[in-house]
Design brief:
single chain, 155 residues, mainly alpha, 7 helices
């Protein structure tokens, strides 16, 4: 038979966590971060939006309730860092930017779906569902990590 709704939501949530972690590692790697930096950025990217969503909904963060998501983010980040040279040299992703775009798009899409479903289940209001979907798909911390100091401005 078909998988239950809960199994589908869990699968999409894991996919979002893993793909977001991968996109974070790719971003950190392009900034020449070491393994620890890449794993930290991967985990922040994977969990910040969902954590913010859960705090707004007055719920414990999902990765505390379900630590397997934290494990997926950490192990996915480590695997991406270690296997990245192999992935780039022996796959269709010869372009780092293309790999980032795909992983980020899949992560954002799955996070939006799950965040929307959680928001609606918690509140029963479509406005809250849309807001939590958007919040879940964003990473409010990563842009702060990668903000570069502005250069001299010529007026």
């Amino acid at each position: 038979g078909l998988p239950s709704e809960e199994a589908v939501v869990d699968g999409v949530l894991y996919a979002g966590t893993l793909m977001s972690a991968i996109s974070g590692v790719i971003s950190a790697g392009t900034k020449q971060m070491d393994m620890l930096g890449c794993v930290i950025v991967g985990c922040i990217t994977a969990m910040a939006g969902g954590t913010l969503r859960d705090v707004v909904l007055n719920r414990p963060p999902f990765w505390i309730t379900y630590p397997s998501h934290l494990h997926a983010a950490v192990w996915g980040s480590l695997a991406t860092f270690v296997l990245w040279p192999l992935i780039i040299n022996h796959s269709a992703f010869k372009d780092t930017h293309l790999a980032f775009l795909w992983s980020d798009a899949i992560g954002m899409a799955s996070s939006t779906v799950v965040g929307t479903e959680i928001g609606f289940a918690e509140t029963g209001q479509w406005q809250a569902a849309v807001t939590t979907g958007l919040v879940t798909a964003t990473d409010p911390v990563e842009p702060l990590v990668f903000t570069e100091a502005p250069g001299d401005v010529d007026l």
